[in-house]
Amino acid sequence: PPELRVLNNCSPSQLEGLCSFLQLSVCPEPLLVCFCGWLLALTPSLSYTSAAILAEQLFLRRVLSLTQPPSRHLMAALASFCSKYSQPFCCVLVAAVLQEPGKGAEQTKLVCELVEECLEPHCVQLVLRQVLEMTLSEKLLPVVQAVVARKEVLPLELLDLLVLTLCRQAPAFAASLDYAKLVTAMLSVYQSQVS
Fold first, then answer.
1. What is the CATH number of the domain that holds 73?
2. 40-47: long-range contacts, CB 8 A cutoff, minimum separation 24
3. Theoretical Cys-Cys bridge with 15: which of 10, 70, 159, 161, CB 3.0 to 4.6 Å?
4. Is residue 51 part of a domain?
């Protein structure tokens, strides 16, 4: 709808106010899919700041409150939004999910699914950088595994940081099956670069 062009003319505070007025954070999921479809067609594209605000308003509360796998509508909306605005999405939503200590398996599975199926290669690298800035935990190992499973060519400094992090934190995962799987996958995928 032509009315959506107003999103390009809003200041950040106006956009937050508009999202609040429209109750986008709690709108029904089928409408969320439709709204994200409209965002894809919006010209010119949203600025980084506007896309980040929308990522937070549309998805953050929904994702952090997941206690079971996301609905197909929510996954469709996430995939649609990620296809055009993956960098602000990662910086806002993925970072929040990874840093939330109390969040459980559903959020981690969702991030893994997004890494495996939706995110562009540069955003997969962004997710990996976000993970490596934190202390590795059992919760984060599947996310790194999903990145490695993509078999993307990683920049040398990022690959070095990943190897170094896995080596330094190995003692903490002495009994971890997920850690063992991750190291095996690393040696398989990046065999020529890892000595």
1. 1.25.40.480
2. 40/80, 40/83, 40/84, 42/4, 42/5, 42/7, 42/8, 44/8, 45/84, 45/85, 46/7, 46/8, 46/85, 47/8
3. 10
4. yes
- Kindly state the DSSP code that residue 27 receives in the 8-state scheme: S
Instruction: Write down the residue that tokens 């559903």 correspond to.
Output: 106
Enclosing domain of residue 78: 2-119
In the chain, how many domains are there? 1
Q: How far apart are CA 139 and CA 110, in angstroms?
A: 12
d(CA 120, CA 85) in angstroms, rounded, equals: 10
On whether residue 115 sits in a domain, the answer given is yes
User: Is 87 within a domain?
Assistant: yes
Give the model confidence (pLDDT) of 150-195 as tens digits: 998 889 999 999 999 999 988 999 899 999 999 999 989 888 877 6
Q: What is the pLDDT of residues 119-130, one digit of tens each?
A: 888 999 999 999
What pTM did the predictor assign? Answer: 0.85
Question: Does a structural domain hold residue 68?
Answer: yes
Beta strands in the chain (DSSP E): none
SS (H, E, C) 56-100: HHHHHHHHHCCCCCCCHHHHHHHHHHHHHHHHHHHHHHHHHHHHC
- CA–chain centroid gap for 146, Å, is 12
What is residue 101's predicted lDDT score, i.e. its pLDDT?
Answer: 60
Structure tokens at 63: 């994702």
